[in-house]
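Here's a chain:
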Amino acid sequence: MIDFGRYKLTFNDAKIKVDTYDGMTPAEFDDQVRHWAVFDVPKENYDPAYASIRSAVVDEFKKVLADNDNKITYDLDLKTAIKLYELLNAKTGFDIIKANDDDIWRYITLCVMPDITFIRYPNLQADVNILREYIPDLTYTNFKTEKNSVRIKKKRFYSHTRRIWLKTLWWYVYLGWQGNSAKTYAVMRNNGTNIIGHFIERPGRGYREKLFRSMLYVYSMLPENYQKDKTFTAAAKLNLAKCVTVEPELTEGGEQKYSESLFDEVIKKGIAAKNVKKSDIK
């Protein structure tokens, strides 16, 4: 069992590493990108205890990327997240205290798996072009350059507690866990990257795993025409409003019925809005 608390990278140490990348000459950084493009991270960069975890997560990332024709998709995020959670959980000594420690995630991100993090979130179009030399037709649905970052997206690597990519993946699966990997994938496969943000970046009154797991399950059981980002967004906002005065666990039927009522209300409001004639709007 790994002593996860032993391997950490403070904010300042992470900043120094990223500043080193940012300070490289164009030729030096291009060479670094080429190493990451072939998943080449020197073993001396991280403790050997992480070797099997890195191998399994990177293999999953590579497989899913290839299966999706080298397109960066939500499915890539989800399957990578599930693999990460299979390896880092309470059974392996990785509890929620450690999962909330950004210094651990900074170490995992910058020392153990900088390659897949960079491939998932490159910062410049020029770097995407280099990655495509080794990963043909690599495609991003929503590519953006991060403001105030140079070559490395600071928020995704170390600086923003709720945007460190590998950390957000772990928490997303933890909050949506349905008992095993297959059931979790079945419930979460029709979601999207925006739903990850709803949970991780806007937790409301803290992370409530029973409630979030129920909400995701209920959402997955909706007819497909209602499984849209705007439906979940509306339910998440409604939940934030209701949780000010209502404790879901203490309502009749608990989190499950509470979640059903959220989506029922959202859908009914949506139907009512569609039925309002333009002539009725003043």
About this structure: The first strand starts at residue 71 and ends at 72. The two ends are 65 Å apart (CA to CA). Confidence is low (pLDDT under 50) at residues 276-282. The beta strands are 71-72, 139-140.
